[in-house]
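Trying the structure run again after the queue cleared.
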Amino acid sequence: MRKHIFILAALVCASSIAVVLVSFRHAGPLANSFRAVIGPHCLVPGPIAGLSSPEPHIIEGCVFKTVYEGEGLDSNFVLRTPQAVMASEQRGLQWLVKAQADDGGFGAGTHARQDIMDPHAVSSDPATTAMVAMALMRMGGSLDAGEFHEQLARAAEYLFSQVEAAPKGATNITPLQGTQIQVKLGSNIDVALTAQFLSNLVARIGEQHPKHLRAMRCLNTCVGIIQRSQNADGSVQGDGWAGVLQSSFAASALESAQAQGAEVDDASLDLARDFQKANFDVNTGSVATERAAGVTLYAVSGSSRNSAMEARELNEIVVKAKKEGKIAKDAPITVKTLTDAGVSQGKAEKLNTAYQVYEAAKQQAQDDGVINGFGNNGGEEFLSFLQTGESLVIGKDQGWKNWYQQTTGRLVSIQNQDGSWNGHHCITSPVFCTATSLLILSINNDIDHLISQGAVKYRGN
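Done. Tokens:
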């Protein structure tokens, strides 16, 4: 009898634990409305065959191996997508794919006619197409399978053709001029965003894919164009209204291209990173906003994004040195600490600068006063939010979880009734802003890729 009572009690206990796990809520301001989804996943739009529910569904391991199999990343680093965010993603994606043009591209329209909000009344441009294609991939899409694989394949073909048609010696990959994205970010922004897309594509399709060689050739072409258009200070020629963002995305493109084996010159990448770091003075806390349209958010998001990898390398060197007893457990982050850990003087100075910039810039990039800025959002704000989030993930910064909850809550609350997002100043294009918003909302689908991109070279040496 006692044995049966014990078994019954055990079953009740196990059931209670299961209920607690299933009903787990995220901490933070979204806790009351967002339900966690247990297990590593990617969002797949639409119903599963044979089921009547139109809700998005979840599959495991849809693009990369999970982070649990990667670099020993603590599973607490991963946040599950709340249902309210998944519903928002689904609505945004359904709106976005309908915006594709007959040539396979997507367009933001011209700066001179920002009043045109119909996505089919504007010309396709590479920058907007690249953002949409990256959003489709981050949400589980591929060239060969999935509900929207045809749209992604057509967008990729459009971008391939734009790169391949670029004349020798060009500083961009399109003859278009005066697009919203170019005027606001820089006249050569198309090549930077296309390079970023191509890096992401190469990482996903693998060397045996029939499009791999073509994608790599196009990526190397874009890398060459970016490096050729680089100014002596590391910025990119053709500043727009907020040219610091063009230069930031160019630096990120070189970084991700190098991670995929593209022909990136180390000196060019270092110069590009140094330009972004120089926008933030850690000693005074001042921000150089002359090339950021006077907007602090644009400058500090770029500074944090382009110092994240080196800040992460410093952290891992210090942790390793403490475990090995080379430095004290409570050793502060200084150049001397790094040299004591075995890092050369020159590299120690470089890493320490990146770390200090990252730590200070990420705080400012998440400050409410900085984020609120104009009181509403343009495309530049969405891009800055994206850079901040990616920097936190690449840097393996636990602060990314708070950023994700706050930012996704903000985006869900301002989504249009038709599922799109649009800017209220500067970049207003609903296509560009919707793609960027989806990249932000689904960033946790891409953690393994971003973590891998931030892996440092000394591993295994």
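The beta strands are 42-44, 57-59. Worth checking whether this holds up in the mutant runs.
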